[in-house]
Amino acid sequence: MKKNSFDPSNRWVKKVNFVKKLFLVLLLLQLFPVQIFADTNQDPPKLISLSFDNEKLSETLVKIEQASGYKLVFNYEDVESYRITGNFVKKQVEDVLNTILKDKPFTYKVQSQKGIVVIIPKSNNQIVYGKVTDSDKNPLLGVDITIKNKSRGTITDADGNFQIKASEKDILVVKFISYKTKEVQITDDHVYNIQLASNVNTLDEAMVIAYGKSSKRLSTGDVSTISSKEIEEQPVTNILQALSGRVPGLLMTENSGNPGGAVSVQIRGVGSLLSGTNPLYIVDGVPYLSDAIYKSGGNTSSSLAPSYGSSPLNALNPSDIESISVLKDADATALYGSKGSNGVILITTKKGTAGKTKVDVSISQGFSETSDIHRVKPLSLDQYLEIRRAAYANSGTTPTAYNAPDLVSWDTTGKQNVDFMKLLVGKTAQVTDASTSFSGGSQQTVFLLSGTWHKETSVIPGNNYYNRGAIHFSIEHTSLNKKFTATISNSMIWDAGNNAGQVFQQSDLAGYAFGLAPNHPLYDSTGNLYWYSSNTSNSRFDNPLSYKYSTYTTKNNNLLGNILLKYTPIPGLNIRLNTSYNKITANSKNLHYSKGINPYSGVLPSAFFQENTSETLNIEPQIDYTQNIWKGAFNILGGASFQKNDYNQPYYIVGTNYSSDALLNNPQAAGSYYLYTFSSQYKYQSFFGRINYNIKQKYILNVNYRWDASSKFGKNNRYGSFASVGGAWIFSQENLIKKNFPILSYGKLRANYGSTGNDQVGNYEYMDTYSTSYYSYNNVSSIVPSKIANPDLKWEVNKKLEIGLDLGFFKDRILLSGSWFYNRTINPIVSAPLTTVTGFSSYTANLDAVIRQEGEEFTLTTKNIQKPNFNWVTDFNITFADSKLTSFKDFENSSYYNTMVLGKSTSAIYGFKYLGIDPATSLPKFLDANNNGTNSYTETYPAANKGAGDYVYLGKSNPDFYGGLNNSFSYKGFQLDIFVQFVGHTMKKSIMASASVPGYNASNMYNGVYDLFKETNGKIATRTFNYTDGSPYVSFVKYLQSDAVLSDAAYARLKNVSLSYTFGQNLISRLKISSAQLYLRAQNLYTLTKYKGLDPETGSSFVPPLRTITFGVKFSL
Amino acid sequence: MTCNIKKYGIGTLLLLAIAILVYGCKDFTDVAAPSNQLSTETVYTNDATLNSAIAGMYSTMANDNAQIIQTNLSALTSMCADDMTYPTGNDYDGFVNNSIPINDTNVADMWAAFYSSIYQANSIIYGVQNSTQGALSDSIKQNATAEAKFIRAFCYFYLTNLWGDVPLALTTDAKVNNSLTRSSQSAVYTQIIKDLVDAKNILRKDYFFSSSNRTRVNKYGAMALLSRVYLYNKDWKNAESYADSVIEKNTIYNLLDPSEMSGIFVQNNQEAIWQLSSSSTTEYTSEGSYFQLVNGEIPYYALTDDLIKNFNTGDNRLTNWIGTKDADGTTWHYPLKYKQNANSSGATEYVTYLRLAEQYLIRAEARNNQENTNGAVLDLDVIRNRAGLGNFNSSANQQAIDLEIEKECRLEFFAEYGHRWFDLKRRDRADSVLGAQKSGWKSSDVLWPIPSTEITNNHNLTQNSGYK
Fold it and tell me: Is B2 on the interface with A (CB under 8 A)?
């Protein structure tokens, strides 16, 4: 089982050279990327000197092989039993072999031009040897070798070698899945080097899986992959946005159209009550932050964060990403043990490829605007005034300048006529991207170096922006004997932005604009911002332009480094060591200048400063070995993982009462300031293993096991085991199917079952801790117990079952795939109530409860037209999934009893059932669900639970279905992709959720309220605060908690259109470049929905996802 | 095809390196504590953090739970008895009418506040006990345990007097404490006495640990509470002897002069045995703040006419400790023992849980019950004279003296931490005194309801009779 005897050069010297060279690489590779490793030692065959003292023939042959430089091919078992004694000085190889084989049942054949000597048993000279490789000369394992029209057959080993009994004129049939079948005529030659040409189709594209690679065809688990092409086509800031609608089972929701805003990702519904629901992100093997940095590690002492959230994935550069794999079922995720329960997203960055040095340049410019800015409208000035006046009349109160400036002091004739939405979120933003990369290398060394720049401005007026710069490089070197590979990759990303996100201030300017009284003045007579005393408690907002005088800036630095060492001592055995490091630093600053503060409030300027860091160190040694056993290829993987995370917040400083705006940047100049710090640590270790057995590309068995220890849990429960078993049967390989269903080109049935865990709780939750107290006692600073110990706290276990069927028809022109999954979260982590006798009212604990996630996913890919010049491919996917609470011990005593019902969706919406206007009172009427004669505001328990409350099940907010449809056309140089994303769900009319009782405040609201106002003959408007049942005030409050404000929020969104033109060879060669492309890309072009709100995706009144159109050019030198 | 181990040298080394790494990382998952939190273990590894934990134990009572175990403890018990009403504002009907709902949040808050202090005390007792030998200096360690035992006894005293039989949490283990049953009142008292005797034996006589401030309990604090506990248990002999010890310590403790009476709660005054220092940020006490609050002209907390009419005109306590407000033709009286409030600057007052006057009245009652009526009247007169009243009839019989002691207790300690309510209950006078004044009075009203959420969260707990 040797591969390298072709190379006779001295190994030791080469090793020393290699180490030296490795250091040189690190320093100089960018300057001399190609030539360093050229190695031209080629010794001719030579005379050999050897002596043997009753040695095994096999050892003798190995020594001859080493000494001669020839490769000796023989069957180990055949020669094992013979012993050799002899002494040879400066002999030819032939002489030595003649002597030692003289009285043995062997002969030999030298093939000088191939450097091979074949040892042939005399008894049977029909044996042939061979090696099967791909077009890059990589050995292929498990290749099917048969003799045409005979039943005899074998498969290749990890080195690609095979041997088979054959006679002259026999024909070898060499068959391997996803390669073109080859037939080889046997001649008098005994050795055959066979190269197979690949026959790649989408089923066989390499797919990154947990600690390895696979393909759609051979995978036993449920993995979806997004390629760099699909990411590039979308002008997105955050790579997660590129996943929207493209991965079945993955629901991506943007929280806001603000650049750098939070993006939430949920894979197959929520299986947890208190723990996090984020998937596990792994970037080049490094576990990456899933929480926004200011929250990571369980930090609750930081407040300086954008109100629209932030996503740590913003600090990754989309154009540096090679592929994203989304792992969903137990088979795919079990190797991530206690962290894989919410699914795993594997992000792989780009690496260089061998060949001519290539320079790629891409530049684009685009524009963004708030889409559907006027989808819903607020009350007109006349409607608004009518309701306000009615409220005062109904309550018998007289409007005064003090309590109703909008009726008394402000202009009621409509002279101002400012479109606040247009003013606050209506600007056109600009998006600029530029990137360049250099890549290339030799067979031994490849490299990639890229730099990118992204800048976008905001739809909010003022100089708001989000910038990002990134440098990424990757170098991979393989030693001459191909046994040693070292890969280094590194990304440095810097981003900075400023926005209207502020501490303690209204920063959702879309909501702000919508709720502003239509006649709210912007400026006073002197041209300064208009203010009035907000002491009257009837105004909701300050001057909308005040945000201009508060600056909020953030700055993030992200360093991602990764070194992978791989050693392959013998074919099939790989030893790897993967070391990675990630550090993210975030700085934020928020200054409130006096000009933006209501002078009537008496508040002085203030400033907030914050820094957060997160560091991850991860070391993963791994060994894997592939060997043929019986008729199949057997692969075993073993590994360990050591991870350490440190989260730090060196400061969060709140500085108040500044005497002057000029001093705001200096916290020490504050009248008073408080400092909050935070730090926490997380350590993790695990050992894992996988066994994969693939019999003839037909029957595949995959078993995973992982043992974890996590510092998040007490010593009693720190350790846990997770496992999965999965199998696939590629039944289209069965002759019976092939014969009877010729249209079926591919068919796979797969099933797997296993367990994963969820450890997304804060650090130290199991410990009893003391925290520093705000108060000191007798001038001694005091510490008080902050948490009671729960040494029994352990991770949630998610047991996952999946069954899937994948089909391909008409030579895989139609691919259909369906999966059904059934996951159960056992002992979910909750905030469990305690008697206060314990000193605390609750602690974090596992409860005896089960949450069930169940659903189906379907994907369909059809190659509708395949012509030389014209191609049309359609991809469609749809997911139906929901999470239900199925059992819960002592449910009625838990805090979840008020918000959940057993057997119902975890996202169920409960509220009053609206019965229309009661003619007796002219006020909204609601169902008395418990028939107790009253319909009190306090009867808010879900009726199904207590039989006591009037709240009833109104629906659920988890989508009923979601998915996407992509059509891809190519005609000559043109490529057009049209992608539609759709979600079927119900949501509250968010624009109503924040409404106040009609007429109560000087604030505007959704114009649908005017209909209610009319239906109630104006009675709903009131200025009287009254929670007595039957009052107009409480009637409206109940109205907001009823199904009257639920809206069908199903939508279909033309998410992405991408049109590109690639120039033909003629022009390219004239310009002396290797390729050129022009492209036009559009995001969030059009949304089809009946939803009554600004946006059916974000739901809240935040700035909806922006409509972006970019134009760009891309070329390679 | 062949094998040769020598060629796999690098692989062997890599494997070895991995093996060492794996072995070396056995305890890899032990993590450092967060910087803004301390694991309980690390608190008890040095004197400084132990001192901070003790400061925290007092500070929780003085600051975090101030409104609950100071203002509410005084006000709600006074309402349950016959000393206080609420003319306006909050809804305290349940207390005034002795019909407290089982889900009353004030009751639940007070229950939780005492148990949270008990958790702190238990944490200190077990933390010190389990600390590594030599990590803490002996004197600090012993004193800490003694102070924690005192605080635990103090909290159980209030728990058992408010609720009767209560769960006896003596560890920090949530699992154990979350399934306790209620211990009988006598078992609770046995534990209180045990803790107080332990504390008394170890605590210093002076106020060394609080730099001469009377804000950390000393030996006499433990003895003063012990004398009260023995009195409540009708162990007259012990009650008298511990009161003796405190009263005799006149180098530290003396009753304030009548002229100084308005400053009865001034910091470190001669009469104070144990005080809580108010927070450095608010500088005034919770009672100082709440009892002086008015809604328009009407105080939130008003003293009953029944209390006021028991004062003789010219009683120093009436003039020094009671404020008046006239509104709508009514004169409202409200407690004004604490003078400082949000408008004051510079802290001059401390919350005073134990003061010397009580020891005289305890000794008077103990002596009277041991047939020493002369001695009893002597002690009674000390309090009467200080209030500006003449001597009590020295030839009065034992029963008359007893009633007079009850009355002096009421006048001396109105609106102070439950004295009146507890006195009526322990003397079995609640039915006759309160039954006469309150229409809906039931004998079972002497105990508060166990907060309903507590029973929900621990099915081993039972409700007091009379509550559903």
Answer: yes
Residues of B in contact with A73 (CB under 8 A): 1
Q: Do A777 and B55 touch (CB under 8 A)?
A: yes
Distance CA A473, CA A438 (A): 9
Q: Does B16 touch chain A (CB under 8 A)?
A: no
Contacts of B55 in chain A (CB under 8 A): 776-778, 780-783
Residue in B closest to A3 by C-alpha: B1
Rounded to an integer, what distance in angstroms lies between the CA atom of residue A155 and that of residue A458? 61
d(CA B223, CA B273): 10
* Cα distance between residue A605 and residue A617, in whole Å: 41
Phi, psi of A961 (to 5 degrees): -160, 160
Chain A positions touching B24 (Cβ under 8 A) are none
Q: Give chain B positions within 8 Å (CB) of A773.
A: 56, 59-60, 63-64
Asked whether the predicted pLDDT for residue A162 surpasses 50, the reply is yes
Q: For B110, name the nearest residue in chain A, comparing CA atoms only.
A: A836
Q: Answer whether A62 sits within 8 Å of B4, measured CB to CB.
A: yes
Nearest residue, CB atoms, B29 vs list A565, A709, A773: A709
- The residue among A446 and B297 whose pLDDT is bigger is A446
Please state, in angstroms and rounded to a whole number, the distance separating the CA atoms of residues A191 and A899: 74
Residues B378-391: tens digit of each pLDDT: 999 999 999 999 99
In the prediction, which pLDDT does B32 show? 63
The answer to whether the CB of A307 falls within 8 A of the CB of A885 is no
A1 pLDDT higher than 50: no
| Residue in A933, A186, A292, A334 with CA at minimum distance from that of residue A612 | A292
| ipTM attached to this prediction | 0.91
The upper half-sphere exposure of residue A627, i.e. CA atoms within 13 Å in the direction of its Cβ, equals: 10
CA dihedral (B328, B334, B340, B342) positive or negative:
negative
- Tell me, which fold does domain B1-202+428-468 have in CATH? 1.25.40
End-to-end CA distance of chain B: 87
Statement: residue B173 has pLDDT above 90: yes
SS3 annotation, A362-421: EEEEEEEEECCCCCCCECCHHHHHHHHHHHHHHHCCCCCCCCCHHHHCCCCCCCCCCCHH
Confidence of residue A539 (pLDDT cuts 50, 70, 90): very low
Q: Is the pLDDT of residue A202 over 50?
A: yes
pLDDT at A891: 79
Query: What is the reported pLDDT for B17?
Result: 66
